[in-house]
Amino acid sequence: MGGVVGWLLILLAPLIGGVLYGMERKLKARMQRRAGPPLMQPFYDFFKLIDKRPMVVHSLHGYLGILHFLGMWLALAVLLSGGDLLMVIFMHLLANSFLIVAAFSVRSVYSQLGGMRQLLAILAYEPIFLLAGVGFYFLSGSFEAKAVFELSSAPLWAMWGIVIAIIIVMPAKLKKSPFDMAEAHQEIIGGAEIEYSGLFYEALYTARWLEYLFAYAFIVLFGGANWLLGLALAAVVFLLVTLVDNATTRLNWQQTVAITLGLSLPLGAINLLLIGIQ
Amino acid sequence: MRLERFRKKSPWILHYNAGSCNGCDIEILACLAPRYDVERLGILNRGNPKQADILLVTGPVTHRSRDRLVELYTQMAEPKVVVAVGSCTCSGGIFRHMYHVGDGVDQFIPVDSYVAGCAARPEQIIEGVARALEILEHKSHEIERPFQLRGPLYCSGEQTIRRQMAAKVSDETN
Ligand code: SF4
Q1: Is the pTM of this model over 0.80?
Q2: How many other CB atoms are found less than 10 A from the CB of residue B38?
Q3: Looking at chain B, which residue has its C-alpha nearest residue A35?
Q4: In chain A, what residues touch B34 (CB-CB under 8 Å)?
Q5: How many domains in chain A?
Q6: Taking the domains of chain B in order of start, what are their residue ranges?
Q7: Does residue B98's CB lie within 6 angstroms of at least one atom of ligand 1?
Q8: Which CATH fold would you assign to the domain B3-145?
């Protein structure tokens, strides 16, 4: 995806992400037979948070939150402009590590617990995203996202195992049940984000929209040149993740890591082997 | 753009049980469930004082819970409102004048909206919250302080440090 469309997508990413987040909340409510909040609810929250009296634990904590947001946007920008996939994945990891450093920099136990659990969640989903990067390399001969968008036969068919593996780890990535131990509202009350408030929580809130967009944009990659197929796949995953989120309860970290890695790593590895043989 | 307009479109709630019998807590949870579904009004139960706008209190404030109540209240960022849910929260109700309770939350923190009833019905609670939202829209960013257990509020330059605000001043308030 290049040129004007790519740049427009990058600039409007927080807006699109916000709408996506609103859609998710609405869909989740409809699945529970509730009316749900209006579609624009995330933006109402956004404006309300600006208006709150600023409170900050210490300045570095606040800045790390903002860096988390910027890092997330940069990772998304590299992906949408057709850049290097490894760069995308590691940029994204860097953005998350800002949040983890912030979580450990305050004295709240909940925050520290959240930081540790966030690290475990990264352990659960990161390997699969790397395997996907390698898979794309085998198919297109390059780590560039641009090359993947030019593949005439959709990578989805060759990389079926990795697609299933990514669907399995998706809840861990988006902090959804059953793998939402890193956030765990009502248990550790948001974990890493507990000490943020007002304007600084804003950064985390919008970073979450970008994270949604990032995860689903990564899935669109599996459609190759046929981006309609990619979008359809992303929509299916969106429905599936929301359904699973509504239907399951939270697992603890041992179960999370065992299930995600135990199922998805072998699947991904076998799939990579098969691609290698062909 | 007037940002105050958005305050009542996305009120986030912190719910604290200051020694209630749990009757009103169940009614509050009923508000969040599909039948009344307050999320359609943008209301979320955050459970985090730093990100909440409305403090929903139930219970007559037992001596054990009052320090926590004041602590939670001081941790909330302004603008904020307090809704007292249930008769015992408003005035002590059936617990009034008992040896271990402080008759109602308004002895400790300023209350903006009272919801009577033992237990308060979900419709009443939603009404009480709606009333509180009207007040919230006109609040300033002035720091609001609890009445009792009040320690000093330090200011250094631009920063206010409210860590001591909920400290115990003396034990005479028993
Ligand atoms: S008002 Fe009545 S039902 Fe509600 S918490 Fe108090 S005693 Fe329980």
Answers
A1: yes
A2: 22
A3: B40
A4: 32-34
A5: 1
A6: 3-145
A7: no
A8: Rossmann fold (3.40.50)
